[in-house]
Specification:
Blueprint (H helix, E strand, L loop, with lengths): L17 H23 L4 H28 L4 H27 L16 H11 L5 H13 L1 H14 L7 H6 L6 H17 L1 H21 L5 H8 L4 H13 L1 H14 L23 H15 L1 H12 L3 E2 L11 E5 L4 E5 L6 H20 L11 H21 L3 H36 L6 H16 L10 H4 L13 H17 L5 H10 L6 H7 L7 H24 L1
Parallel strand pairs: 1-3
Antiparallel strand pairs: 2-3
Length: about 575
C-alpha cells in the first residue's frame, strides 16, 4: 500500500522474480522454435493451433507484465530492461504468426475439421489478412526496424508525457485540475499545461511523424487502401458499420452543442472555454474514498449480476488495482490481462472524484470481459477494440444509473453532467480525433509535419466538431492523447464511440429481458470468435444501420433534456 492509502497492485503473483520472468521468455522461445518446425513440416492444423495457443497465452502474460511494471515507473532500469526483453521476444512471436499467415492457404482443406469449428472466423480472417502480408523476409525486417524505430518513438512519448511538467506539477496533475470547481485554477492549469506541451512539441512532433510515416509505408507495402481500412479490419468491423457510426455522430453534433450551451448556463457563463468542459456542476463537492469506490462498484455490479459483483470484489480483495498517481507513472487508466495466469490488473490515477469511481468501473468492466473469455484458448480470448469498449462502458453506465437513483437534486445534476460529458467526449471529442488522424495521414503522405502543422490540424478538427459551443480549443490534444503514438493500431478512437453507443443499445434491450445478465455474458464470451458485426447480431443489433446507433444517442438525449430542465428552473 502507498502512504496515502491508495493501493499499488501486486504483480508478484504473476512473476515472483526476474528469474521466473526470464524462464517464461525461454519457454516461449522454445515454443516458437517448435511452431516453426510444425509449420515447416506441415503438421496437422490442429497441432499447429495448439502450439500457437501456448505461445500466445504465455507471451501475452509476459508482455502485459513488462508493460504494467514500466507504466508505474517509466524510469526504472529493470523495468526498461524487461520491456526490452519482451519486445525482443515479440519479434520471435511475430515471426511465427507471420509464417503461419504465409502458409494459411495450404491449410484450407483442414478448416472443416470438427475440432476446429470454433476457429472458423479466426481462420477465415487470417486467410484474408494473408492477402495483405509482405514476404516473410520483409515482415521480419519490418518488425526488427519497428523495435528501434517507431516503437522506440512510442516509448519516448510515454517517457516524456509521464514526466513533463512545470516544476511544480506534472502535466498529468495539471490536467487533473480540469475537474476542479475553482475556475481560476482550471484556467491557470489549462494555460500552464499548454506551455508544457509547447516546450515538448518538437520532440513529440518527431515521434508522431515517425510513427505515422511508418504506418503509411507499411500500409502501402501490405496493399491496404488506407490506414483506416486496415484499422477497421483489425477491429473486426465492416466499413459499412463504421460509416454508419460516423454518420450518426456527425448528425448529432447539434445535440451535443446544446449540451455544451446548457452546461455554460448552469455554470453561470455565457459560453464554455475548453477548461470548463470537466467542471463539476451543482453545489455538491462530494469526495469518494477508495473504500467508497469499492463499495459502490461491487454493489452496482452485483445488482446487475451476482457473478459480476463477486468478480469486482475479488479484484479489490486481491489487490489488482494500482490507484495512486505519482511521478514516473503514466497518466490515464487501463486494464491488462494475464492469460496464462488467469487474472487481470488495473492501472488508475485515483483523485477521489466520482469520475475516478466511474473510471474504476470502466476498467473493471474490461477485466470482467477478460474473465469471461479467460477460459478460452488464447486465440479465442483475443477480442478487438470495438467490442472491448462495449464491456467497459456498459459497466460504468450500470454504476451511473444506480448511483443516480439515490442522488439528491444537486448530486443528480453533477452525475448527469458527468455522464453526458463523458458521452460528449466519446461522441464529439472522439470524432475530432478521428478527423485529426485522418487529416494527419493525408498530409503526412506529402512529407513531415511541424508541430505548428499538428496544432493547426487539431484546431481545425475541433472547430468541425465543437463549433461555436466552445470559445477556446486545445491545439495540443495531439500531444495529450497517447493513442496517436501507436504503430500497431491506427484510429484508436472510433472503438470508444462504438462501445458507448453499443453498450447503451444493449442496456435499452435489458429492460425487457429478465435474464439479460446471462445473455450479456454469452455475448461477451464470443467476442474473440466472431466479427463485431456478428457479435452485435447475436445481441439483436444491426450495426450497419444508422437507426441502431441513434438508439444509443437517444438515451443520452434524455439526460441532456433533464439538464436543460434544471437550467430552466434555476
Amino acid at each position: 500500500m502507498s502512504t496515502n492509502n491508495l493501493p499499488h497492485w501486486d504483480l508478484e503473483s504473476i512473476f515472483s522474480s526476474s528469474k521466473d520472468f526470464e524462464k517464461a521468455i525461454s519457454d516461449v522461445s522454445l515454443l516458437c522454435s517448435k511452431a516453426k518446425k510444425e509449420i515447416g513440416e506441415h503438421r496437422a492444423l490442429k497441432c499447429v493451433i495448439d502450439t500457437l495457443n501456448s505461445i500466445l497465452s504465455l507471451y501475452q502474460t509476459i508482455n502485459s507484465y513488462a508493460e504494467a511494471s514500466l507504466s508505474t515507473d517509466t524510469t526504472n532500469p529493470l523495468y526498461i530492461k524487461e520491456q526490452g526483453m519482451a519486445d525482443e521476444l515479440g519479434l520471435c512471436v511475430q515471426e511465427v504468426m507471420t509464417l503461419f499467415g504465409a502458409n494459411i492457404k495450404s491449410y484450407q482443406s483442414e478448416f472443416s475439421d470438427p475440432e476446429l469449428s470454433e476457429y472458423s472466423y479466426y481462420l477465415s480472417h487470417t486467410l484474408e489478412e494473408s492477402e495483405h502480408q509482405m514476404s516473410l523476409e520483409e515482415e521480419k525486417l519490418a518488425s526488427e526496424l519497428m523495435r528501434s524505430g517507431s516503437d522506440a518513438f512510442e516509448r519516448l512519448y510515454d517517457a516524456i508525457s509521464s514526466t513533463a511538467g512545470n516544476g511544480k506539477k506534472t502535466v498529468i496533475q495539471l490536467r487533473g485540475d480540469a475537474t476542479s470547481p475553482d475556475r481560476k485554477l482550471r484556467e491557470e492549469s489549462y494555460y500552464e499545461e499548454l506551455e508544457v506541451w509547447k516546450a515538448n512539441a518538437l520532440s513529440l512532433s518527431y515521434c508522431l511523424n515517425s510513427i505515422k510515416g511508418t504506418v503509411l509505408t507499411l500500409c502501402k507495402k501490405r496493399r491496404w487502401k488506407s490506414p483506416l481500412e486496415e484499422s477497421a479490419f483489425d477491429s473486426h468491423i465492416s466499413m459499412e458499420a463504421l460509416d454508419a457510426l460516423i454518420r450518426t455522430l456527425e448528425k448529432n453534433l447539434p445535440l451535443f452543442r446544446r449540451y455544451f450551451k446548457v452546461k455554460a448556463r448552469l455554470l453561470g457563463l455565457t459560453s464554455l472555454d475548453w477548461f470548463d468542459l470537466f467542471a463539476p456542476l451543482g453545489s455538491s463537492e462530494k469526495r469518494y474514498s477508495f473504500e467508497d469506490a469499492r463499495n459502490i462498484v461491487v454493489s452496482c455490479f452485483g445488482e446487475f449480476s451476482p457473478e459480476m459483483g463477486e468478480f469486482a470484489a475479488k479484484a479489490f480483495r486481491e489487490n489488482w488495482i494500482d490507484a495512486e498517481p505519482r511521478k514516473g507513472k503514466v497518466g490515464g487508466a487501463y486494464d491488462t490481462s494475464f492469460h496464462s495466469a488467469g487474472v487481470s490488473r488495473i492501472l488508475a490515477n485515483y483523485d477521489y472524484s466520482y469520475d475516478s469511481v466511474s473510471t474504476l468501473a470502466h476498467e473493471l468492466g474490461h477485466a470482467y470481459h477478460d474473465s469471461v473469455v479467460m477460459s478460452e484458448k488464447a486465440i479465442l480470448a483475443d477480442y478487438p477494440m470495438t467490442v472491448a469498449e462495449t464491456a467497459s462502458i456498459f459497466a460504468e453506465t450500470i454504476v451511473f444509473r444506480n448511483v443516480l437513483k439515490s442522488a439528491d437534486k444537486d448530486e443528480a445534476i453533477l452525475l448527469m453532467d458527468q455522464f453526458v460529458g463523458s458521452a460528449a467526449q466519446v461522441c464529439v471529442d472522439i470524432l475530432s480525433r478521428f478527423y485529426f488522424e485522418r487529416s494527419v495521414f493525408e498530409k503526412r503522405e506529402d512529407g513531415e509535419l511541424t508541430s505548428e502543422d499538428f496544432c493547426s490540424l487539431m484546431l481545425n478538427s475541433q472547430e468541425k466538431t465543437y463549433g461555436d459551443s466552445l470559445k477556446t480549443k486545445h491545439e495540443y490534444m495531439w500531444a495529450v492523447k497517447s493513442h496517436y503514438y501507436s504503430t500497431s493500431f491506427s484510429y484508436y478512437n472510433y472503438p470508444y464511440a462504438f462501445g458507448q453507443l453499443f453498450a447503451l443499445g444493449l442496456l435499452a434491450r435489458s429492460q425487457n429481458d429478465s435474464d439479460f445478465a446471462c445473455h450479456y455474458r454469452d455475448l461477451l464470451s464470443v467476442t474473440g470468435k466472431l466479427s463485431a458485426d456478428s457479435v452485435a447480431l447475436k445481441g439483436g443489433c444491426d450495426i450497419k444501420k444508422d437507426e441502431f446507433w441513434q438508439e444509443g444517442i437517444d438515451i443520452i438525449e434524455t439526460y441532456i433534456k433533464r439538464l436543460e430542465e434544471s437550467a430552466d428552473n434555476n
